[in-house]
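User: Here's a chain of 268 residues. Predict its fold as tokens.
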Amino acid sequence: MSRLSSVKIVYHHLMRVSYDGTPAGAPGRLDSAIEILSKHPEYEFIEPAPATDEQILRAHGPGHLDEVKRDSDYTHQNLLYEMAALAAGGAILTGEIAAEGEPAFGLIRPPGHHASWDSYWGYCYHNNIAVSLLHLKALGKIDTAFILDFDLHTGDGNINILGDDESFVIHNPRGHGDDAYLADVRKVLESSPDVDIIVASAGFDQYIDDWGSNLSTDAFRLIGAMMHEYAMEKCEGRRFGLLEGGYNFGDLGKNVLAFCEGLRIGSK
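Assistant: Prediction complete.
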């Protein structure tokens, strides 16, 4: 099997544990994705370690970190903080794999794109995208990145932390239905400058049978395929995605697989 014909799935068994009563933390959310990806030999599961405070503090202020710890101690017996640090560590590992030219997907939770420098909301605690990219930048593995945030909700945390830095291009596509939405994605990718890596804030709540009532399963495959094409043309194949939203638990697996198939092989 060639290097570019497989995808690493970054996942830890604790991600399956229910850590709060929100849709993102509810029991069973990742089950269909684990089940369907496990059936395909092209996908290899690997476990991350939790992010360190130092790694998290590249994206967040000390007060933010303390607040997440206090919230976790008060409401979730420290499980929430453990899960958030593990998700950030999963994002770091996913980014490191992609920086070496191998596609990867972080099947992680809690999500992160609503977490700002000093605040959090929307089921997010640490900004996984920012933690991973700033880690890669600190190691000298990248200088620039394109962030395609296709979650139903605008990733205000991504924008807050990275939006003022010209090293990062952030785009939240818009459009009703597959054709308009995919046209928006293609237009912005085709006009983008070259960068060192492309990452998706991969929110599957745009799905036709989810909150957004907007995109088909095949649209997620085509988004992944466009990322594949862009990465091959502009950043030596460096590409990855991190799970954000997606609350139709039964169909999340097939949508994640569709995106990863596009990311893996393009439009073939």
